[in-house]
Prior knowledge:
seven-stranded mixed β-sheet; alpha/beta
Amino acid sequence: MFKQDYDITHLTTFGIPAKARLFAEYGSVKELTKISRKPEFLENEVLHIGGGSNLLFVNDFDGLVLHSGIKGIERYDKDSETAFVIAGAGEKWTELVDWCIAQGLAGLENLAGIPGEVGASAVQNVGAYGVEAKDVIHAVECFDTEARKTIRLTAEQCRFGYRDSIFKHEAKGRYFVLRVSFRLRPSTEAEVLGYGPLKDFEQRLGHHPSIAEVKREVESIRASKLPDPKCIGSAGSFFKNPVVSKAFYEGEVLRRDSDVPCFELPDGNVKISAAWLIDHAGLKGKRTGGAEVYPSQPLVIANINEATASDVCRLSKTVVNEVNRRFGIRLRPEVNFIDSSVQITVLGSGTSKGIPEIGCSCEVCSSKDLKDKRFRSSVYVRTHGLDILIDSSPDMRIQALTNDIDNVDAVLITHNHTDHVGGIDDLRPFCHSGAIPVYLKKDVADSLRVRYDYCFKEHAYPGVPSLELKETGLEPFHIEGLKIIPIGVRHGKLPILGYRIGKFAYITDAKTIDESEKEKLNGVEVLIVNALRDRDHFAHFTIGEAIKLIEEIKPKRAYLTHICHEAGTHKELSERMEKESDRLGIEIRPAFDGQHIDIK
């Protein structure tokens, strides 16, 4: 049932070598149910993949990769105007489109030639030439891995968005797509002809095109622009078309280049062609190692000569940085980076007063050692192609400048004390390409709506931070497919949150943690935890209490944060922790501002 160290290169369209520590394929709900009860499933990170057309494995996957082998296509006619087609998630998308054309069913012809499998059409909400999957999806049958039963989601319940769906967020890892039901038209006449190169297709043909003719035309257009997946690996469109506010487009983008085209959206924002931006930034044909910005379609990064994942990552970073420099727009990838490594930057390791404290001349506050200069507590995490900020301290602006932070994809907030949210306004530069999702408890969200009311007005002043508050509790949630586990702790009597991301956990301002929440820390390799001082405090761990927690959790490495001047100099505290490390067999060190911590 389970294969070890399995080569999954053939299950991706990039063609970049990758292995999974465990792999399994299922062909029925019964087989999937059996797999979901096994230790290999319950005790490992699980990644469910389709045709791999939107995945970049940055390194080998240290967990279980699941692949659907559920096949079959069935047709059910409702009336003369509607027919339902139900296809297994493991069917190739191109073969489904061909089948529907042969059956005389209209609706999918504009989506011809898209690589991947049927299940991914619902996950990705694939789209092309004026049609998105959401326009024709009727319902999605899924397997609920928690309840171990089959459920049915309507198209509305799937919450489809631009290249987005519920399966990328709260349903990620819980619901596996089994089958997709499409609502199509029994007709051989094409309907959607208003997009790009299809606008004059009827005129060129001399008659109204059939669905078969549109399919062939779309395939021909794609072949002229995109690399042949049989010869050149790629993930199709690597970047999403950016959506920005009309005010930003007119005030900033056009100021830099008055020729930048846009498409106005019903919500008042504008969509800009990422391909146009990349092309006019002079990046067409740009190469890094074996990876290339494809000359015929700059949205594509192609594997032209045995590219490594590192080649693709570095080239995509070059594209993002150059487009941002040229137009002030930060492109976001459509491709999912599968990267279990975690890079942590400690932005601040001090208390609410920071070190040095104003007006204090103690040994620590007057120290010349840069490691004794501590901003308010915060960390920056990079993993799976995402940049995540945990807390936005009052020192956020200088922290970002000092550590060359140029992007924030999401913010996790631990609690609403000013030393953890006082830098919310400094998120302004990261909001040009849309609202930043901010994950936080309800009481914190309510507080921020009052404290930063100008950010949430219906007609907000141009330039203020654009924030999308997403209330969360103690249940795991997903950011672009990345699993985040909130950890409930108590800051004195105040319930607040710590967070676990992969094998990394961050806990600040804690005094107590319930046993049930400690279980969420099992298997953590790196733990950053608050350790105020030796003297007792009603709301913070002392150094001794932090060490006791570390001894109980047994991470490979632990770092102390939220340290006040009473704890001594960094040098003194480091010497103390070396002795504790020897005693416990766990590497324990005081964190310091600007410190980089990597988990491979």
